[in-house]
């Protein structure tokens, strides 16, 4: 650079330009400083806009605009000559440059498993991408030498230098962090904006390994409970693994295990999630900006993928906790080519069976998952996985209940070209609940309620240019609801077996998601999902003289069976269709800040009707039909992210408004006597939810942690309920705080603490009492007009790590946790009942679950 | 199904919960008129109780309504009436019993008029409800299940075929020379789903009897609306709390005064009563 005119260079100017293109900014500087620019139009960025508002010298503003990464400059006399270091991709010439595809698969070093959601960032070009569910990425770049940075939650970052002069295959392996909590606890991908990738969705990720270092509940690490530490994800009740997301009901979350939907994601009446952390690879959740490939639920997506198994070595890992034990076996079937993993969990709770005079009370659950992966050739992979879970609850010998999920799927992924990735999946899911009533053997019976779904889904992902990616696909699933077979239970039982009608329906969808970097740091996501839900006539159709419930006609009734009709084949009786647009835009305001705005419309064709706010198996899934329209949620959301002090801290602020139509609800005093004839028991209402979420995190240093706060409302209105007035939903909680702190005492010892505060949930309060037939009965007031007291508890944990072998293949950890350290008796619920001593008087009983609860967990890996 | 599921939900707290009686300051709602009307041909069961509701935390007796005029009549034959007379006031309200022996026509709708004369501040109010008389199902026999040294009563009957039937049952026990209607911890209820047209029995598991006890058993056939009402009452008796959806039971009474919505239900029941018997005698017969 020639400094022929030092006075001109040292002179300070009041530069004040906002969002100008490079051409406009050059003109501005020309006018302000009286210099001439020499450059080629073809090399100047066309879409990138710059803002500069400072009192600065000419050199300072030129350094800002031409930082040497793409363009440099020199000043010669009165002229500024722009030199090209690397042609900007968004310049005319940049767009004309031949581009080569860099694609590949990112894997974990020790197991060779693929990594979902790893960021692949070309720092020289300031562009990047994220690996998909197969660990695959694809991006097109011009000829050149590049430094590529690869990062993923829980793994050490890797930098690699590549020379690109043709299509390039880059398969890399990342090594896991030894101490998982050292950098981040629960990472939201939103922060990845700062690594060259703008996320269109509000995504929260939980690394299953991390849950082993957080305070545990009854010695079980639980990814869903970890998720509840993040804003917007609320527990349905204390200690519960059920989720309510942004005011939505617990049935509005799409739980996917390897792309297969799950109908009940909890064990033991909600105290555990069904996900065994040792079998999980990734848990990725969406609250807004939800891609159109997901559908069928109204509020959120919890996309869980099982591990594929180590195709290098055989491994045994497992754990023993206060309540349960688990073991996982994995290894290669053929080294580098194929692998297996099988993982199981079982509690010892049946060993603590409670003796009673009439028999035993028991509570039991177990789950098992297995997955096989075959790498047919470098471009084709077949994976197959299965999941099986079972719960059993028995009260003395008079009643028992069992329920569970079974899933299976086969997926074929194929790399059709370096830019084109396809995924074909065939899946099956089965949910079953059976209840046994055996108070009198002669009239004992068993009811069974099942849902069977078979689905087929095909997705194509086309990474067209560095700036445009299109994903699209079709899916179809056949639902079979068998909602209430009754069979005699005891051999003495004279109960007549009753076979419920099989309710059949087909849910189909075609969808697309387009991601387009329309400008530097501006990314647009446009998606659409057209879905259709066809009800078929029941093959054995029972006609009853039922009067459907409508708000204006409260005289609905079930009368005697009048006829049975047999319908052949699949005859469509009724159809619903919906087009769900999904729009999102993500804007990088600066290198440290971004803004994301999204609109999501979600359709849900089957809803769960619950008579209890307790997590339980008592819910019944009811499909849309000619009288029940599908649930429709419209959500508008905005989010702001800011990274402070080079990533030491970050903060996110989110706000949302959601309106809902056709929320399923029991009619006033509805009883749901027969599930296959529920027309006269249910009604629908409307809802609205809105709230504000904030998350502040300290991500580096000896002490790391986060503070999450959610302020929210969730209301609904149903004709004939609560005098047609709006009332708070069961999920309505005004304030929820979660503070998480983690302290690395030594490399081997980690201390963590979580403090949770939550406003009380609404409940319907008694406002009087009356006498009926010898019973004193409360009179209830407006629905959900009262509030339970707020709850708070502090949980701590100490985790010890031990490496048993230098090659790191053998390691173990011991976690000691205390739930509710200061033994607060948080109100779980109230019961209103007659006093046992004086039945003429009512009494109020406060129920609390856990005052102080220590637990331990030992995990090992060989 | 609702009942059945509640059966599973409530004992959850057996496993995980701790209980602590507390005083809860709740809002006080408007006073409601309560009409508890069980009408049948059975002299043991047929009665109407009128009272007012109390605030939830009130510990006084339920205020009786003593000056009502009550009359039952077939909806289509208004001239065949059965008046009810005030018998006295008790802690649960004012008791009214039939003036004459009631005779009901099966399948016929009956209407009950409850007239409350007004005063300086309240106007006259007429409450009216109607319900159909269900098919009477006779008790065929009584048997017992032995439970330790005591006996559980079983009531045998044959369910009428091809119609939906709803049942409840009660037991009166002779105590100190007088028959007392026992109060079970919840209202025994059953439908004929799964047992339509069959000879079946139901149990009264709430009280165990000894050999020397003298009993009278009552099997009530209910209308579907009455059954639904009792289900709603049972939900509140068994599971009343913040973890379940709670709603006041429906009422089939209408009022001539706007805003005067009473609680309670008219249940016109077909009741089959056994003779009075001693447990030991019945065992010997069987």
Automatic annotation (TrEMBL), chain A:
Pfam families: CarbopepD_reg_2 (PF13715), Plug (PF07715), TonB_dep_Rec_b-barrel (PF00593). It is found in: Cell outer membrane. Residues 220-298 form the TonB-dependent receptor plug domain. GO terms for cellular component: cell outer membrane. One of its GO terms (molecular function) is siderophore uptake transmembrane transporter activity. It is a multi-pass membrane protein. One of its GO terms (biological process) is siderophore transmembrane transport. Residues 367-821 form the TonB-dependent receptor-like beta-barrel domain. It comes from the Bacteria. Keywords: Cell outer membrane, Membrane, Receptor, Signal, TonB box, Transmembrane, Transmembrane beta strand, Transport. SUPFAM superfamilies: Carboxypeptidase regulatory domain-like (SSF49464), Porins (SSF56935). InterPro entries: Beta-barrel_TonB, Beta-barrel_TonB_sf, CarboxyPept-like_regulatory, Plug_dom, Plug_dom_sf, TonB-dep_rcpt-like. Belongs to the TonB-dependent receptor family. This is TonB-dependent receptor plug domain-containing protein. It comes from Flammeovirga pacifica.
UniProtKB/TrEMBL annotation, chain B:
InterPro entries: DUF4249 (IPR025345). Pfam families: DUF4249. This is DUF4249 domain-containing protein. It comes from Flammeovirga pacifica.
